[in-house]
Each structure stands twice: as C-alpha cells, then as structure tokens.
Write a structure and sequence with these properties.
147 residues, alpha/beta, four-stranded mixed sheet, two-stranded antiparallel sheet, 6 strands, elongated
Length: 147
C-alpha cells in the first residue's frame, strides 16, 4: 500500500482558526467573519461570541410520579437513570422546570451517583444539590413522606 492511500483512510481533523482568543466552531463561521470584516464600515466593531441572549421555550414536563399526601400537599418524583436517560438536554429541562416552578416539590431518585461523563467529576448528587432538588440514590427515603 502506498502512503497516500493510508493517509486518505485516516480522518484528519482540521484545526480551526481563532478569532481573538476563541476558536471558531466551523470554517464557515470563519469565512463569514472574514466577509463581515471586509464589508465592515470604518469605526464599527466586530466581536465573536461575546454576547449571551436568554430565551425560553414552552414545553411540557410530565413527572414520573405524583404523590398527593393526606393533607393535600403534592410531591412529584422523577426517576433518573444514567446515559441518555439523564443527558445534557434532560438536565437543562429539569433546570428550567426548577426555575419556572420553584414552588413545586420535585424530588429525584437517581439510579447511580457516578459522574455524568467518563472521567468527569460532576455527579448527579452534585447537580441536584446545586439546583436545590431533594434527591436519593436508588432508594426512597421514608422521611420523604413524614415531612
């Protein structure tokens, strides 16, 4: 086999250029940057990914379990596994639910407390504590129903 053939079989990952200190996400972004730069009027300023605009979407969250206690208070319980069951999108959804429904008593039962990513440090218990969710790992605490 010749060397050219071997090189063509290996996917080469092109290192993308930077704008300032940030590396662009695609060559197309960099091309657009260059085009804007070329047309930019004198005195105008061009920056890359320095602004964050918050947006919300309307979706429905359906808790796995709803418990209505004798006194009428409601507890929602969410069962979360690992992997796709509690991926980034799922965590964002639960963050949005907490932000938009701070009055609801939502608790999470995690299947495991190992880090979200291989080699990662953040565990489900860290995430839940940070957001203020009551949680347990595998078991249902008896005191959840005695409060």
């Amino acid at each position: 086999m010749n060397l050219w053939y071997l090189r063509s079989m290996v996917k080469s990952k092109k290192i993308l250029p930077k704008i300032g200190k940030k590396r662009v996400r695609s060559q197309f972004e960099f091309d657009v940057y260059k085009a804007i730069q070329h047309e930019l009027p004198r005195g105008a300023e061009l920056t890359y990914e320095d602004t964050r605009l918050t947006y919300t979407t309307t979706k429905d969250y359906i808790p796995d379990f709803t418990i209505t206690k004798k006194d009428g208070t409601i507890i929602y319980v969410e069962a979360k596994g690992l992997g796709r069951a509690f991926d980034y999108d799922s965590r964002v959804k639960m963050e949005m639910v907490k932000l938009q429904h701070p009055d609801k008593d939502i608790r999470i039962v995690f299947m495991s407390d190992r880090p979200f990513r291989k080699g990662g440090k953040v565990r489900p218990s860290d995430w839940a504590t940070k957001l203020g969710y009551k949680f347990s790992i595998v078991t249902i605490p008896k005191d959840w129903f005695e409060e």
